[in-house]
Write a structure and sequence with these properties.
Strand order of the largest sheet: 1-2
Structural class: alpha+beta
Largest sheet: 2 strands, parallel
Distance between the termini: 21 Å
Number of strands: 4
């Protein structure tokens, strides 16, 4: 449809998800559409990741706890990914996340992204 209408689609807000063959299939489809920029979502935290339990005490006004991810989303006055209500990260969890980002980057490069 993009070709028929003379349009290009260099990026997507939908992003790719999953791992392995499922992720490669999505990136292959994105490549066919000419997408050069996308997000690869690795999904939820693993069971050994910190922050799966709701923090003790009341949450600040406007904040809520997402039991699926273990993240407290802050009120609109604070950035969601940062702030004092986020679970602490361990050095090992940061290393695992960096390794996953690097692997995703290598895979995306394979598809020209």
């Amino acid at each position: 449809m993009l070709d028929r209408l003379g349009l290009t689609m260099p990026s997507t807000h939908a992003g790719a998800t999953g791992t392995g063959a499922e992720l490669e299939k999505q990136l292959g489809g994105f490549q066919i559409m000419g997408i050069k920029y996308t997000e690869i979502s690795t999904g939820r935290r693993g069971p050994d990741e910190p922050g799966r339990q709701r923090p003790a005490g009341p949450l600040p006004p406007g904040a809520y706890f997402d039991a699926g991810t273990g993240v407290v989303h802050n009120a609109f006055t604070e950035a969601e990914a940062f702030g004092p209500y986020q679970p602490p990260a361990t050095l090992e969890s940061v290393k695992r996340r960096a390794a996953q980002l690097n692997a995703d980057g290598r895979l995306a490069r394979k598809f020209g992204m």
